[in-house]
């Protein structure tokens, strides 16, 4: 315990010395990209006979799905800190969407259409792997929030438009989506229901927070798991380095989720800023990609390391990590460790194993 305490103190110090990482711009006025352009009221959306229609293949409308979820969930996030708007852990989702837009990951990777290019910059392509994965992190949670009456009055129906440039393999309503992905929908409904129930439960704020975050990360992980098989074909449109990055990006969520990370704007930006600011091309090899910043180069190398290490060890790293994150206190230490691992170039990767086993013995 003492060793770990000293070690993490030292690491925090080192991380502070290496200065904040900055490369990609993923916020505007400390909010996700084009947040102000997204609607903040359900009534702003086209509506007829109590059916709201949404086009998630337009960036602002997809962002609206997030803006409505954030606004509607604030009142249940009292355990997240004195300011529930700032403490809301759903912020990482719209921030990620902004990074995907700015890094060119939402455009049509087949180049068959101009969707997402300068002339049609708000278009989200149905062929983009990143947009496909995000579908399960935006549309599905939104439908669950509507179903649970967190958004709307519980009577509202939502119709989701299909993309114009892709085979129509996306689900389009609560009924359709929950038929195709029953377990996934159940996870997001459990998050929204749990958030409501826990907000008034007779437990401490620290426990509420940890449990709400646990439900949110369980749902997010299920989304990624669903997306990794459902969106698989779309990965073929990308270079080998981009595919490898995409896969390690998916598995990085395992590490973040296990710590029950409170993904506010401030805390998420730290992890997202060093993500690659453009789609990777054939021949890109971290940490030697000339037009990326040292921080982006570093993050990519760590992603590759985590992925390789985990596959060499047959999933042992993830298992060790999950096992070590056995208590609320351990999960807090895990968040620090994650920060050191991804942001501190001086951090010796091999020490991860000794730290994890040390943590595990305290479970
Ligand atoms: C909470 O934070 C937001 C964003 O920083 C700010 O606009 C708002 O005024 C704050 N609310 C309160 C009650 O302090
Ligand atoms: C990315 O890393 C490589 C090697 O470390 C370096 O040559 C390249 O200049 C880096 N990018 C920047 C902007 O530092």
How is this fold's topology laid out?
Layout (H helix, E strand, L loop, with lengths): L1 H16 L9 E2 L2 E2 L14 E2 L2 E4 L4 H15 L10 H4 L4 H11 L26 H19 L9 E4 L13 H7 L1 H18 L5 H26 L9 H19 L6 H8 L21 H19 L3 H9 L3 H16 L7 H11 L2
Helix pairs in contact: 1-13, 2-4, 2-5, 4-10, 5-7, 5-8, 6-7, 7-8, 8-9, 9-11, 12-14
This protein binds 2-acetamido-2-deoxy-beta-D-glucopyranose (2 copies).
One 2-acetamido-2-deoxy-beta-D-glucopyranose binds next to helix 11.
Characterise this structure.
This protein is mainly alpha-helical and 363 residues long. It has a domain of 238 residues. The protein contains 14 helices and five strands. Helix 2 packs antiparallel against helix 4 and helix 4 packs parallel to helix 10. It is globular. Bound molecules: 2-acetamido-2-deoxy-beta-D-glucopyranose (NAG) (2 copies). The site of one 2-acetamido-2-deoxy-beta-D-glucopyranose has 3 residues, from helix 3.
């Amino acid at each position: 315990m003492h060793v770990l305490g000293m070690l993490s103190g030292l690491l925090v110090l080192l991380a502070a010395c290496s200065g904040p990482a900055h490369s990609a711009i993923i916020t505007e006025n400390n909010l996700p990209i084009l947040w102000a352009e997204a609607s903040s009221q359900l009534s702003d959306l086209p509506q007829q006979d109590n059916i709201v229609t949404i086009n998630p293949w337009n960036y602002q409308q997809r962002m609206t799905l997030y803006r409505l979820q954030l606004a509607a969930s604030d009142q249940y996030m009292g355990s997240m800190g004195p300011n529930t708007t700032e403490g809301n852990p759903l912020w990482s989702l719209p921030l990620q969407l902004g990074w995907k837009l700015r890094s060119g990951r939402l455009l049509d990777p087949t180049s068959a259409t101009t969707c997402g290019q300068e002339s049609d910059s708000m278009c989200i392509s149905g062929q983009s792997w990143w947009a496909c994965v995000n579908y399960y992190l935006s549309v599905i949670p939104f439908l669950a929030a509507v179903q649970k009456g967190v958004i709307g009055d519980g009577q509202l129906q939502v119709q989701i438009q299909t993309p114009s440039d892709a085979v129509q393999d996306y689900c389009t309503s609560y009924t359709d989506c929950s038929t195709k992905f029953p377990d996934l929908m159940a996870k997001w409904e459990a998050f929204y229901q749990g958030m409501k129930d826990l907000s008034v439960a007779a437990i401490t704020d620290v426990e509420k927070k940890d449990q709400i975050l646990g439900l949110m990360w369980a749902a997010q992980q299920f989304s990624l798991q669903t997306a990794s098989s459902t969106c698989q074909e779309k990965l073929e449109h990308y270079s080998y380095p981009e595919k490898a990055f995409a896969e390690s990006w998916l598995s990085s969520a395992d590490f973040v989720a296990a710590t029950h990370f409170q993904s506010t704007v401030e805390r998420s930006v730290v992890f997202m800023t060093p993500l690659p600011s453009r789609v990777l091309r054939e021949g890109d090899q971290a940490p030697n990609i000339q037009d990326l910043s040292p921080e982006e180069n570093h993050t990519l190398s760590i992603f590759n390391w985590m992925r390789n290490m985990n596959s060499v060890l047959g999933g042992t790293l993830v298992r060790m990590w999950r096992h070590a994150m056995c208590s609320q206190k351990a999960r807090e230490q895990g968040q620090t460790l994650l920060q050191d691992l991804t942001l501190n170039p001086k951090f010796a990767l091999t020490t991860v194993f000794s730290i994890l086993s040390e943590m595990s013995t305290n479970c």
